[in-house]
Specification:
Radius of gyration: 21 Å
Structural class: alpha/beta
Number of strands: 14
InterPro entries: Aminotrans_V_dom (IPR000192), PyrdxlP-dep_Trfase (IPR015424), PyrdxlP-dep_Trfase_major (IPR015421), PyrdxlP-dep_Trfase_small (IPR015422), SP_NH2Trfase/AEP_transaminase (IPR024169)
Shape: globular
Largest sheet: 7 strands, mixed
Strand content: 15-25%
Strand order of the largest sheet: 2-10-9-8-5-3-4
CATH class of the largest domain: Alpha Beta
Distance between the termini: 44 Å
Helix content: 40-55%
Number of helices: 13
Mean pLDDT: 98
Number of domains: 2
CATH architecture of the largest domain: 3-Layer(aba) Sandwich
Organism: Methanotorris igneus (strain DSM 5666 / JCM 11834 / Kol 5)
CATH topology of the largest domain: Aspartate Aminotransferase, domain 2
Low-confidence stretches: none
Family: Belongs to the class-V pyridoxal-phosphate-dependent aminotransferase family.
Keywords: Aminotransferase, Pyridoxal phosphate, Transferase
Bound molecules: pyridoxal-5'-phosphate
Cofactor: pyridoxal 5'-phosphate
Length: 382
Amino acid sequence: MKINTDKLLMIPGPTMVPAEVLNAMALPIIGHRTAEFGELLVDTTEKMKKVFQTKNDTYIITGSGTAAMDMAILNVIDKGDKVLNIVNGNFGERFAKITLAHKGESIKLENEWGDIAEPEAVKELLDKHDDIKAVTVVHNETSTGVKNPIEEIGKIVKDYDALYIVDTVSSLGGDYVDVDKFNIDICVTGSQKCLAAPPGLSAITVSEKAWEVIEKTEKKSLYLDLREYKKRYDEKKQTPYTPAVSLIYALNVALDLVLEEGLENRFKRHEKLARATRAGLEAMGIELFAKERARSVTVTSAYLPEGVEDKEFRGLLSKKYNVVIAGGQAHLSGKIFRIGHMGTAKEVHILATLGAIEMALKDLGVKVEGSGVEAAKEILME
Ligand code: PLP
């Protein structure tokens, strides 16, 4: 089968992967029970800890972001335990589904999709139910292009017994995350977004407070039991089961690139690209979906212009102009589109995407007043 890889991938993950990261996967496989693999695992884990900004135990998991989300919940709850799931998008909802899958009681704090989760409402619920075992929140709601105030929520949760579980799948390495400063007990991420590694790996951090709970929780999974990962890592610097060795080669190089650029520089780059993307869309008369106070720096969501059909628009963008963007999820399908500007995204990618959007809309007969490229250029040249 011939796959067309000659397109600009501007979806909110998986993202484009640099050649040196891809090349790392061509190395021959080494045994995962060797000292050499142990060194690779420790080196990759230590780099991952730097990106998470944590001293907490950290594990690299062979399995996508959802595996780490599953792991975060199943290791800390028993049947009937209450979990406060903050929901303002598809991935917040996923944590609620995982809670139910493990027979927990999900107390959902529903917020408008497109706006932030309100920290005060979290406090009210924690005061109302004194037996909440954990609070889950998604830092960057990829489904809506919203960034939640995880630092503020962390300040609230730390005064309660509940564990603070945060999904940073589409923000870590692109937006400011400091696991220790934000009091995050369990933080999960994926390889394929801001870290610009291939999909297939995830990572999870575990605080002392979380370990105390985990030790008392009934074992519910063999593959995803955190105690197994801790034991193997502490005793042998290994993973309990065969890891995706080639993906770990790749993640190691991807993390080198992240740390070489520097976290601060990366946050600034993502923030600037986000502003340029928003300005470009607005200049073309396209309405942004996320509320101003809630906008993500790694993904921009916007309403499809009046009369524009999602499949036709994105199909044209991909087939004629070779730019791939994403559509909406759940009830937002057919209503919004999403542009990912994370990982290795640069100025030229934003300009190309905005230019292609303008051409595709014109092809579809939409009257595009201003120039998105011009508006974005102003910001990109700052
Ligand atoms: N959480 C967020 C915020 C995501 O964006 C995604 C994937 O898009 C996931 C979790 C799930 O990750 P995966 O698809 O790697 O299982």
